[in-house]
Amino acid sequence: MKFSANLGFLWADRPLPEAIRAAKAAGFDAVECHWPYQESLPDIKAALDETQLPLLGLNTRRGDATKGEMGLSALPDRQGEARDAIDEALDWGAALGACNVHVMAGFAEGEEAEACFLENLRYAARQAASKDMTILIEPLNVYDAPGYFLSTTAQAAEIINQLNLPNVKLMFDCYHVQLSEGDICNRLSRLMRLIGHIQFAGVPARGRPDQGEINYDYIFSHIASLGYSTPLGAEYKPMGHTEDTLGWLVRRQ
Ligand SMILES: O=C(O)[C@H](O)C(=O)CO
Ligand SMILES: [Mg+2]
């Protein structure tokens, strides 16, 4: 099993280039990030080149983070901004050699929001295809993100099936799935052909994966048995020094 350090949470107190080097030193096989846009792209690229860690993905901008926005792509009155955010994420991703962009839907509901999300995803998939990249969509749990447009894997699967585009896939975050839906292993089996990336964290605190109600050794074995070998994204809040939380990784090396 291979692992990707999600630098939105791990070593989040460091600039991304330093966080990338820390992930390499700790033995991760890949990295991924949330919103790198305030940092220096050439410095991030230099750290990726130096460490030879692949960048698995990044997110589209949230919108106005001070207002708690979490994406724009399902907001019918924000289509221009949403597409700028998609273009920006794809440009950064292509420059950094990333394979995935997570297109964030935002807080919205109803048919108009769904039509808007579908249209923006078609746009994103077209742009991504020309860069050989994949678009991910991710349901967020109803406790952390109440009112977020996508909250279940069933809803995400319906959208992905409706679009029927080879480069639109599901980001299956075991933490969100456990909180909103449960039944993680059966869902992984059923949805495997739609999955583009898998993330994990302890539940319910979103801390290190070896603490909490989920037995990740079991889940990782199940994922391996399904033939999935892409690095799994460690997207948890270390609540202290990241190095102090890596026993779960060290035990697997
Ligand atoms: O929070 C998550 O699970 C995400 O993966 C994300 O990208 C930002 O919300
Ligand atoms: Mg996630």
TrEMBL record:
It comes from the Bacteria. GO terms for biological process: glyoxylate metabolic process. Coiled coil: none annotated. InterPro entries: HyI-like (IPR026040), Sugar_Epim/Isomerase (IPR050417), Xyl_isomerase-like_sf (IPR036237), Xyl_isomerase-like_TIM-brl (IPR013022). Residues 20-249 form the Xylose isomerase-like TIM barrel domain. The keyword Isomerase applies. The keyword Isomerase applies. The active site is at 138 (proton donor/acceptor), 235 (proton donor/acceptor). Keywords: Isomerase, Pyruvate. GO terms for molecular function: hydroxypyruvate isomerase activity. Belongs to the hyi family. This is Hydroxypyruvate isomerase. It comes from Cognatishimia maritima.
